[in-house]
Write a structure and sequence with these properties.
- This protein is α/β, with parallel strands linked by helices and about 280 residues long.
- Helices cover about 30% and strands about 25% of the residues.
- The protein is built from nine helices and 15 strands.
- It has an eight-stranded mixed beta sheet with strand order 6-5-4-3-2-1-14-15, covered by helices on one side. It has a seven-stranded mixed beta sheet with strand order 7-8-9-10-11-12-13.
- A hairpin with a 2-residue loop joins β9 and β10.
Length: about 280
C-alpha cells in the first residue's frame, strides 16, 4: 500500500513542479524534535501514528535517545535513517534499535570499518530488518507527510560526509530539509539533479561547518528557519562564523541546540510553531 501511495505522490509532485502541497487531514498531527545530543545529530519525526528517527548522536547518547523514545511512547519506528557512517550520527542508533522495533532502516552504501557502525549493522540484523540503500528520487509516505530522497546522487570517490542521505519532508505547505553532513560538492550534485529545493526548515549541514551550506545551496533552499545541531564550546569551532553570517544575510531565523536544547517544531500544514527545552 505504501509503495502505491508513493507512486501517486510522485505523480502529484511531478505535476506540481516540486514539493507536495496537498491538504492534510483535519485530525492529522506533525512534529519534529531536534534532540540536543551535543556535537552530533538526532531528530525524531512523528506524523499521525508513524515515526522516523534520523541519526542517533554518538554512542554515549544512546540512553538519551532511548529516553526520548520512551517519553514519546515510541516503541516502533517506521523508518530509521543513518545519514552516513560517522559516529556522531550512527553511534546512538544501536541503542534506539535495542529498544524499538523498526520497519525500514535506511543508510548510504558507503560503510565504515568502525565498531559503532558494525554495532548498528548487527542491531539491524537482530531486528530482522535489511538495511536499504535508497536512490535519489525515491519517496514514501510517513503518515500524511511525503518524504523524498534527494541525495546522495553519487557516492563514488566522495568523502563520507558527502555520502549523506539528504531528504525532504513535505507536510501540507510546510517542508523540512535534512542534510546530514553533506558538503558543498554533494549540495552541488543535488542542485543539478533536483527541481525544487525550497524548504521552510533547513537542518544545517555538518553542524554549521564552512564546508557546507554554500551560497548557491542556501539560495535554492531559502529557509524560514535554520536549525544547527552543535555542542557548546566544541573543539571544531562549529558553527563557523562565516556560515552564521551567511544564514543571517538570508533572513532565516537561526536555532541552535547548544543554546536552545531540544528544538520542537509542530506544523498544521500551513504554519510552524517552535518550542525549545531551554
Amino acid at each position: 500500500m505504501k509503495e502505491f501511495l508513493g507512486v501517486i505522490m510522485s505523480l502529484i509532485m511531478s505535476l506540481s513542479g516540486g514539493g507536495y502541497t496537498g491538504d492534510v487531514p483535519e485530525d492529522s498531527q506533525f512534529e519534529v524534535r531536534f534532540i540536543d545530543v551535543g556535537q552530533a545529530d538526532c531528530a525524531l519525526i512523528k506524523c499521525d501514528d508513524e515515526t522516523m528517527l534520523i541519526d542517533g548522536g554518538n554512542r554515549e547518547d544512546s540512553s538519551l535517545v532511548v529516553s526520548v523514545l520512551k517519553n514519546n511512547n515510541v516503541e516502533y519506528l517506521d523508518y530509521v535513517v543513518c545519514t552516513h557512517a560517522h559516529e556522531d550520527h550512527v553511534g546512538g542508533l544501536s541503542g534506539a534499535l535495542s529498544f524499538a522495533d523498526a520497519g525500514h532502516i535506511l543508510a548510504p552504501e558507503t560503510e565504515a570499518d568502525t565498531k559503532v557502525y558494525q554495532n548498528f549493522v548487527e542491531k539491524a540484523k537482530e531486528r530482522g530488518v535489511k538495511i536499504e540503500h535508497p536512490d535519489d528520487g525515491d519517496n514514501f509516505m510517513l503518515g500524511s507527510a511525503q518524504v523524498e530522497i534527494l541525495g546522495p546522487v553519487n557516492e563514488k570517490g566522495k568523502d563520507i560526509n558527502s555520502t549523506s542521505i539528504v531528504l525532504r519532508i513535505d507536510y501540507g505547505e510546510t517542508s523540512f530539509l535534512f542534510t546530514g553532513d553533506a558538503e558543498s560538492d554533494e549540495e552541488g550534485d543535488i542542485i543539478e539533479n533536483s527541481g525544487n529545493l525550497k524548504a521552510t526548515v533547513l537542518k544545517v549541514g555538518h553542524h554549521g561547518s564552512d564546508t557546507s551550506t554554500s551560497y548557491q545551496f542556501l539560495r535554492e533552499v531559502m529557509p524560514m528557519y535554520s536549525v544547527i545541531s552543535v555542542g557548546k564550546d566544541n573543539s571544531y569551532g562549529h558553527p563557523d562564523e562565516s556560515i552564521i553570517s551567511r544564514l543571517e544575510d538570508s533572513g532565516t531565523k537561526i536555532l541552535r541546540t547548544d543554546e536552545c536544547g531540544d528544538i520542537i517544531m509542530t506544523s498544521d500544514g500551513k504554519n510552524i510553531d517552535v518550542n525549545t527545552s531551554k
